[in-house]
Structures are given as C-alpha cells and as structure tokens.
Amino acid sequence: QVQLVESGGGLVQAGGSLRLSCAASGGTFSRYGMAWFRQVPGKERDFVAGISRNGARTYYINSVKGRFTISRDNAKNTVYLQLSSLKSEDTAVYYCAADRGHWAPDVVVNLRTDYTSWGQGIQVTVSP
C-alpha cells in the first residue's frame, strides 16, 4: 500500500476553481490506478474521477464531466484533480485513493472496494 496526502482544498465561490493534489509515498506510484472520491455527511463515499496507471485513460461521473479533470505525474508521484465551474453541490470532503495495483496499465476501476489506500480527506466548500 501507499501513503497518500491530499492538499489544495478550501472555500471557493460558485463558478470558481480549485486544484487538489495528492502526493504518494511508500510504494511504486506507477503501479496504481488512482481516483478521487467525495463524501458528504450522512452519505456514502462516492467515486468522482479515476485515472489509469499509465495516465492514458480517465473516467468521470456524469455530474462532473467537462468541469473536473484528473491527471497524474508519475515522476512526481502525484495525482491531481482540477475542479472548475464549481457548484454548491460539489461541496464535500474529497479523498484520494490508490487501487489494488494489479490492473492492466490502461484500466480505470470505479468501485470503492477496488481501492485499498486512502488519504485523510480534504474539505472543499463551494459557497453560493
């Protein structure tokens, strides 16, 4: 497993942008597909976006397509989530996650149970 630390969250007005970063350590970063999940109080932690090990494939939930962009830099052991055109419903704690590390290089998985390493979470608040 890898250790993951998120940064870049905060308070932003609706329509604004943020970039979340997730730094990985303790493992071979390029072995892992990566994803961002989010959670609001009282609800499940939901998949938002994922990226394959080699960065060639990405996958987004419909509600963020065209607004969020996931990317990774394997040389820096970091995955990013660019959030744009933010809406109040994007308010949540965002979690970075690494998958089990046994998928093919261009596979993106989107089930929470496929991910075994998690960051501590970071708050994103979008004001109306």
Describe it.
The chain is mainly beta. Helices cover 0% and strands 48% of the residues. It has no helices and eleven strands. It has strands at 3-7, 10-13, 18-25, 34-39, 46-51, 58-60, 68-73, 78-83, 92-99, 115-118, 122-127. A hairpin with a 6-residue loop joins strand 5 and strand 6 (58-60). The N and C termini lie far apart (38 Å).
Main sheet properties: 7 strands, mixed
Which stretches are poorly predicted, pLDDT < 50 over at least 5 residues? none
Strand content: over 45%
Helix fraction by DSSP (H/I, runs of at least 4)? under 10%
Question: What characteristic shape results from the CA principal axes?
Answer: globular
Helix/strand class? mainly beta
> Distance between termini?
38 Å
- Whole-number mean pLDDT: 97
Radius of gyration: 13 Å
Kindly report the oligomeric state of this protein. Answer: single chain
Order of helices and strands: EEEEEEEEEEE
Give the number of helices: 0
**How many strands?**
11
